[in-house]
């Protein structure tokens, strides 16, 4: 056995392991920044950086009492951070758990799925043209039973007429969210958590904030029709896409509802 080759190979392995280690650390930091960006937590992170810098400066200047104080703050701050960052930590873990690495997509819809997509699309277009406000949530992997129970149970088949009638102004069920479970309307007038993200424009109303809120705590896909402008927006993975076309809406709905990747002709 050639020992020189063995050590050369071992050195190469150590270099590769070191590079991989750095890449993992940078990726984790990137994920943390992505999760915290646009939330109140980013301001707390800035405060943590100030504390760490203050600790190092106090040690360099031999400020014993100040250094001890910073040490105590950092020592007990870990528990405080878990409590303070609980919503962000939960959201990060949920996003990690519902990652798309092992998801499988098809490239076509069957006839039943195509009919459902068409019914929802026509209802959304009808409401958008007449500026009828609507909020429809499509459940995916994360269960929404807690939110379904806050509304009026329906367990109804999906149709264009029913979707439209639920959101007609001044009717008993128009205020709140409709939640779709598999291929059924599970509930209407349900309450959703409101997002406190600073990235949501102040011009947007409660429906949009609720749509972003449910996408932050679950993997649900949500469509919002604005009663002020008639524009169509969707939310997923904590992101809001505003003023999308009907073709883009149908593509996104098919992808998130049925796991189907397809592209309509003429749509980029």
TrEMBL record:
The chain crosses the membrane at residues 15-36, 69-86. It catalyses: 2 ATP = 3',3'-c-di-AMP + 2 diphosphate. GO terms for molecular function: adenylate cyclase activity; ATP binding; diadenylate cyclase activity. GO terms for biological process: cAMP biosynthetic process. Its EC number is 2.7.7.85. The keyword Membrane applies. Keywords: ATP-binding, Cell membrane, Membrane, Nucleotide-binding, Nucleotidyltransferase, Transferase, Transmembrane, Transmembrane helix. Probably a homodimer. This is Diadenylate cyclase.
